[in-house]
Amino acid sequence: MQSQDVAPRPAPSSGPVIDVEQAEAALVEHYPRLVRIAYLVLPPSLGRNRRVLTAHALTQRALPRGRTSTDATVIPAQQTGAGRDSDPGYAFVRLQVVRTALEAGLPLARLAWPRRAQLPPLLPQVWGLRLFPRSGGADELALDQRLSALSGPARAAYVLRGLEKLSEADVRKVLTAAGVDDPGAALAVAAGVEAQDSLLDSPEFDPCSLHARPTDLMRRRQHLKAAIAATAAVVVCGALLGLPGEGWGPDGAAAPPYAQNPAAQAALDPARLTKAPALAWQSSARTDFSVWPARGGLTEDRALLRRALAVWARPGESVAVSATPGTPSGAPPGPPQLLYAGVVDQARVVLLYDGLRVARYAEPTDGTSGAALDFARVDGAKAAEAAAVVLGRADGNVRYLTAPWVTEVAERDLMKPSSGAMDLAPAADGVTTPLASPAQRSGACTSWNVLELKDGSGTRLLTDLGELVPAHLTSGRPAAPGEVSGAEALRNWAPFACSLASVRSQGVRTVNAWQYARQSLPDAGGSATWVCTRADTWRGGGTRVLAQFRTPGAAYGAVAAKAENSSACGSRDPHVLAGVLWKSGAGSWYLLAAGSKDTASVGVSGGVTGSAKGPLLAVRTKQGAQAELKGSLENGREISGLR
Fold this sequence. Notes:
alpha+beta
């Protein structure tokens, strides 16, 4: 629903006195027109049936409760003539209709009582039927769509000017009296909609001439059965909540319980949380989250752990829940493992692991309002992929909890391979100092900070992509990618670091950068590099592949081709072919293409024709040419170019 700028009602000033009888006479005489005004000003997002009923309800409630002094801004439709055009009673009722219709379109505030107009109408009601105006033609539909894109004040301005024929000054006065903060802005927006005043009188917008259709009869029967079952459940739950020691208050932001089976109860018992021995990781054959010890200063806070488990099992409406794609967010199948419980940046944080997922529960230190629950899939994690978890984000920074086997933690700018790494000085419990997160940055990409970890096996790079578990960066041939630890691997990644922004919040597990070809450019343009970056996900699907082309001296690589759910550049199919149009320094255009090392030949057809033996191709062409690439591998298999 669109937000609208509607201020509190202004206090009436002295003016003509309108009594109930005068207003009622105007309402009865001009009822169809007033309901039409309400229908047009109400937000279309309400749906046609509720919009009809709300328009009638608002109009019927427009009568004053007694004798009322009107404001000078309550103006008739026209100041001359007879009938409604000079009737102050009509002007008063119209103002009430416009005001309440604008209020009905306001979003509900979380900490304030809703206004009466924002609630579904108690009367009128028609049970078992859906009511809606007769359908108009294409012009009426187009106008309705244009009006639906406007704010409430702008729709009101359009209707008052087009249907009521008010001048711009009079429209401004009515909107001001109705509580609109900026009538001028509403008029300006309404002026941008093509004037089609005659359509406002069409049957499409007449909520008094209606079609009636039944509601979904099968669903109505199902709802009746569900209502009976819900009533019985409320009675049972009420009895359970009344028992001593029960109730959902101690569970903080969790919703009321819905299950009482032993397995569910065991998963919610803080006393049954599993904890790995402090040094289990040193002797275990596994290097994943299952050997992380429980760390943090609140691991014995039973009340906090109880709330975390309860919210995981049944998050309430106020809990912000997020999960990486393909990650289930249901309750744990049994008692999970505790990884961390402590205070991080003004929040109490609990990290839990159930063998498939890592769950992060966070609540403010001064209460449970605004609790958050995040999930990340981590099944099959290896040492590098289980090396760190996000504990919290604040002010564009991110804090990590690192694995117990990590010995050094530093921050490095991936776009500056020659710069050194800055020590993050993790605490004794593995919590790092804040690191600037590239996932929360907006604007031009001028840096990309990554987490550099060292352990007994070497150096690893991880990057925050806006999720609970950072992605592991690697470099080299897909069949055997290596860590981004040496100077050459860092230089290879630097021009393509900003392309990581394209895989934010996709549940990415690893991203590998593979320089699969170097190509001498025509017209003595130097030597260009071709790099394929492949982002693999925890769920298996959703893989994203980018073939990128970098000319000599360029700070960034250019995306030449991309594909989703492709096997290219992966361990199962370590091949790739891509092409790009390139303009030389001499002003000539070329189609350049490159395949991986075992490509025997490359050909191009369509708007450009040509072929070459080996993995490289350069064909002179024109700007904007369209072509299709085909290649053959040394084993005779044909491959197509990425698009």
